[in-house]
Amino acid sequence: MTAPATLDSTPDTPATDDGGRGNGRRLGLVAGAVAVVLALLLGYAGGLLTPRLTRPGDDSVEAGFARDMTAHHAQAVEMGLMAFQRATDPEVRSMGGDIATGQQGEIGTMQTWLRSWGLDPTGSQPRMAWMPDGAGLVKNGLMPGMATPDEMAKLRDAQGREFDLLFLTMMINHHLGGIHMIEGVLEESDEPDVVRTAQIMKNTQQTDLTNLTNAKKRLGG
C-alpha cells in the first residue's frame, strides 16, 4: 500500500541536461568580451602608430617645404619689422606689422611640424630640392622672391617715401616667390595639416599682394 503524500513533502527536481549548452554560452560571452577588448586595444594602438608610420620623412616634400619656407618667411619678418618701425606711410607701417606677426606665427607652425615628425629644423637636402623645378629656381643661394644682401642693405639705408616704395616693391617680389613655393607643396603633398596651412598662406599672401600693389600705386611707385 502506497503512503499518501503529505503537504510538506517536496518533490524531487529533475536535473536539467542541456548537453553543456550553458557552459558553451558562458564561454562564448567571455570570448566575445575578450574580442571586443582586443579590438579596442588594436584600434587605440593603430591610432597611435599610424601617424608614426606615415609621418613625413627627412627628404619629404613636407619637410623640405617647412624648412625652406621657414627661411623664406624669416626674411619677410625682418622686412616687415623694418616697415613697422620706419615707414612714413601709416598703411605701409600697418602692413609691415601684419606681415611680420603673421609670418612669424607660420614659422612657429612649421617648426612644430618638424618637431612632431622627429626631424631637425635643417636637413641635408639642397634648397628647393623638394620641388620638381626647384633647382632652377635658386639663384645665388636665394629662393624665389628673396632679396639679395645688397637689396636688404639698401632697404636698411633708405628713408621716407623712398623706404616705403622700396619695401613695397621688395615685398611684392617676395610674396610672388613665396606663392610659387606654396603652390608647389599644394601640388605635391597630401598631408592634411600641411595642405590646410599652405592654402591659408596662399590666400593671405594673395590678399597682401593686392594691398601692397594698391599702396605702391597710391604712393606713385
The topology string of helices and strands comes to: HHHHHH
Main β sheet profile: none
Helix tally equals 6
Low-confidence runs: 1-16, 39-52
Kindly name the structural category.
mainly alpha
Rg:
34 Å
* Cα-to-Cα separation, first versus last residue: 131 Å
Instruction: Tally the beta strands.
Output: 0
| Rounded average pLDDT | 85
Strand content: under 5%
Shape: elongated
Proportion of helical residues: 55-70%
How would you sum up this structure, described in words?
This protein has helices spanning 21-54, 61-86, 90-116, 149-157, 160-188, 192-218. It is mostly helical and 221 residues long. The longest helix is centred in the N-terminal third of the chain and has 34 residues, at 21-54. It starts with 20 loop residues before the first helix and ends with a helix. The model is unreliable at 1-16 and 39-52 (pLDDT under 50).
